[in-house]
Amino acid sequence: MATLEPMPLPDGVAGLVQRLARLDGVRGVLLGGSRAQGGAEPDSDYDLYVYQDRPIDLAARRALAAELFAECEVNNQFWETEDDGYLRQGRIAVDIVYRDLEFVAGNLYAKLERFEADVGYTTCIWGNFCGSRILFDRDGVIASLQQRYSRRYPPELKRNIIRKNYPLLKEQIPAYYHQIAKALGRGDAVSVNHRTAAFFASYFDILFALNEMAHPGEKRLLRTVREQCAKVPEHCEADVLAVLGHSGRCDPAILPALDGLIGHLDDLLRLEGSGAGAGAD
């Protein structure tokens, strides 16, 4: 049976959700991001995730956008399939993200039952899906999936994330540290910053795994660590900011700063019994 979960929303957003729920192929509509999980700024978007069992008719999406939005970019394909714009009513910023339900269910299975780690951001979809609020659930499958995967952090996944990401910090030949050193040597500021961002993708994946919490995504990471993580390397925030400062200037001092950051992470890994290096038991 279709359900619309009661939740206070601006009238324009509530009306949009009701219209999305009527589209053929829609299994559920969820509110994600800071509007669902707290910490929203006054200008934060409303992130609506539409879970589908087949692609939603593009003409129907265009008609909906023309009726309800003052401005809308329909079918953006930069990261996922999205309709992004501003509602006529209240000129509220809304991002509609269309996701294949079978793909998301498969990702959750891979991470939480097969314990498959990625290079960075391993548990983002898990955190996003289970941390989103159900606004519409056609036949209860969304609630069922949330219930199934709202579980304790698997120790096998924690171990696999550390094993996959730690060697990429400095330990192995293609590690980010060595890529940054090479980029410094050729004066390649863009590459230094690119590899530094990749370094932090793996670093924070390790850190959230150590704290057994789903990765929150790319925003407000230091604040999340400060407010929600009990297990944090010594001088974590200062170390991160130091590395970022040197990266922006393409400053060779980034290398000793990275050494310090990795060293403090190693201390925490040893303290937690995860082991520096390969993240051994």
Automatic annotation (TrEMBL):
GO MF terms, alphabetically ordered: nucleotidyltransferase activity
Coiled coil: none
Gene3D superfamilies: Beta Polymerase, domain 2 (3.30.460.10)
Pfam annotation, one family: NTP_transf_2
InterPro entries for the chain: DUF4037, NT_sf, Polymerase_NTP_transf_dom
Residue ranges occupied by any Polymerase nucleotidyl transferase domain in the UniProt entry: 16-55
Cross-referenced SUPFAM superfamilies: Nucleotidyltransferase (SSF81301)
Descriptive protein name: Nucleotidyltransferase-like protein
The organism of origin for this protein: Hydrogenispora ethanolica
Lineage: Bacteria, Bacillati, Bacillota, Hydrogenispora
